[in-house]
Structures are given as C-alpha cells and as structure tokens.
Specification:
Elements lengths: L6 E4 L4 E7 L10 E6 L9 E2 L5 E4 L5 E5 L2 E5 L4 E4 L4 E3 L15 H37 L3 H15 L2 H21 L6 H31 L9 H8 L1 H33 L1
Helix pairs in contact: 1-3, 1-6, 2-5, 3-4, 4-5, 4-6
Amino acid sequence: MLIPGQTLENPVTGERFTFTDTEASSNGELLGFDFALRVGGAVPIPHVHPVQTERFEVREGLMRFRIGMRTRLARPGDVLEVAPGARVRRPPPADRSQRGPDDWQGMTTLRAISLLGATVTMGLIAGVFALFAHTIMPGLRNADDRTFVAAFQSIDRAIINPWFMTTAFVGALVFTGAAALLNLGRAPLPWIAVALALYVVAFAVTVAVNVPLNDAIKAAGNPEHVRDLASIREQFHETRWAAWNLVRTVTTTGAFACLAWALVLYGRSTA
C-alpha cells in the first residue's frame, strides 16, 4: 500500500513520484504526488482517467502538456486541470537550457518553415503540370496550326517569370532539399526523401524533354511570318510533350502527397 512520503522511480523513462496524499491518508478522496522528470525523459504513453480530475502545478522548469488536441507550455506557478475523460500526455520537458543544439528553438522553426515551404511549392508546381495535362493541351489539340503555335509560344514566354521559377519550379527543389537536410534522423525524413526523388525525376524530364521542345517551337518565329505551320507543329511532337508532362504530373502529385504526410508526422513529433 502506498503511503505519504514514499517514492517510486522509473529509471527507463526518468519519472519519479513522491506521494503526498494516498488513498489511506485521504479516505480514498485524493491521490497526490510530486512528480519529477529528468531532462530527456518522457511519460511513455498518453492516458485517460474516466472519473478523476487531474491537477498539475509546475514548481520548477518548463513542462509541455498535450491535452486532447491542444499543447500547452507550463511555467513555474502555472496550474492545469484535466477534466475526467480527457486524453493527456506529458512529452519530454521543455527545459531549453539543457537541450542540445539539435533542439534549439530556431532549428525547430527552420524545420517547420522548410517543410511547409516544400509542401506549398510542390503543390503549386503539381498544379501547373496538372493544368497543362487536363486543360491546356487538350484545349489546344483541336486548334488549327496557327492558333496552336501562337498560343503555345505565348504561354511558354509568360510562364518563364521570377514568380513561377522561385515559388514553384526551382522553389520546390530548394525547399524540399532543405527540408530533407534539416530533418535528418527524424520521423518525416523518409517521406521527404521520397518526395525529393520524385521531384528530381520531374525536374529532369522538364530540362531534358519539355524545355527543348518549347525552345524549338519558339525558335520558329512569329506564326504570322511562317508559311509551313503544320511542319512546325509536327516537329514539336505534341503527343510526346503531353506524355512526358503526364509523367511530371504524376511524380509531383505523389511528391506533394508525401510532403503532406511528412507535415503530419512532423506535427506529431513536436506535439
């Protein structure tokens, strides 16, 4: 039977309980204890008390609590109450003075920014490739030769702009690469690595196949001054361009899905 003053310690998790009130000393009304957790320790699993109310008062250091879907950082003097039936978890202590450089708050922010940036830019570039696949190329397929050549030249000139290059085409590669480097050894890394590999495929296809075809049709000059537009369109290899664009669409969409799941894993690991 537990008695006031008794201490229980778990050397694996770093938990130490010193009981101040027990069933015997409070006629079954209260279980109270001083709880200490060494730096780097953690409560192993979330828990729920069906009928009891839990009350925590932080006396020293910083402590993160995950109550339901909300996370709160408690400081000395803070008091938290957990209602019966609420799911509670106490992740490792938030004592910044004893964290390693890998847990520096600025590094955590960089990880979040890089992963969020990778997800957003990958979504943008996947949307661009998908738009070509299901709207632009099918729309131009039935156009006459003059309209096709003029429209494609105009679209290609317009899309090569700083916004597209930084927020989508190059941005997705830079942000995803940065997210992989900043998350080495962490739960999201495998999914970020898969996303990066998929995007490298799309990037290579663009540079090796689509861009040369784009340049060739632009090199034909103003359609108003070209006599054999049918030949220009044939040399463009419209079917080949569309097929490789479909490869880009599939790979970038898969990369976007991987990064979205990596964000979920990142959120769970920092909760």
